[in-house]
Amino acid sequence: MSAPLVVLVGPMGVGKSTVGRLLAERLGVGYRDTDDDIVAEQGRTIADIFVEDGESAFRAVEKRAVHRALTEHDGVLALGGGSILDADTRDLLSGLRVVYLSMDVEEAVRRTGLNTARPLLAVNPRKQWRDLMEARRHLYEEVATAVVPTDGRTPEEVGQAALDALELKEA
Ligand code: S3P
Known about the structure:
Strand order of the largest sheet: 2-3-1-4-5
Number of helices: 8
CATH class: Alpha Beta
Low-confidence stretches: none
CATH topology: Rossmann fold
Strand content: 5-15%
Number of strands: 5
Shape: globular
CATH architecture: 3-Layer(aba) Sandwich
Helix content: 40-55%
Structural class: alpha/beta
Number of domains: 1
Largest sheet: 5 strands, parallel
Bound molecules: shikimate-3-phosphate
Radius of gyration: 15 Å
């Protein structure tokens, strides 16, 4: 049993993977991403799981993947954007260093609007983003020990802000 040094949460497209890799490198630890774990385990893309099995089946697979990663991984762990919807998952995050990478809705639409690989945004990206963030913002804030805005910042600047907020020293 181990626990991640840092967990990254936040909406899709906010840069969890890019910033997570940078942070892991600077901290001298490994990087892991629960979306990648799910794709590897299922042998299908996330979009295919949504289409073939539906969102609630995906959430069950995701919950297992997140719980496994939280006990196996001791480096930087990025969680899929919707994993904080699960109350047990939110409980497991308490006591850990959790960084919420945030962005405003316009930035979100710019970054992800045309990306059809993200099944939750396929129809009307701006409205879907607004609804999604209204439903989730308080959950991200609830689990976070630090909130790091990403608007107008490079991944390096975001990574630095996260290190500063967590008062973590580089390797
Ligand atoms: C989702 C976010 C995605 C992926 C799936 C659902 C969500 O992960 O798990 O498309 O509900 O916000 P990323 O946040 O890594 O893109």
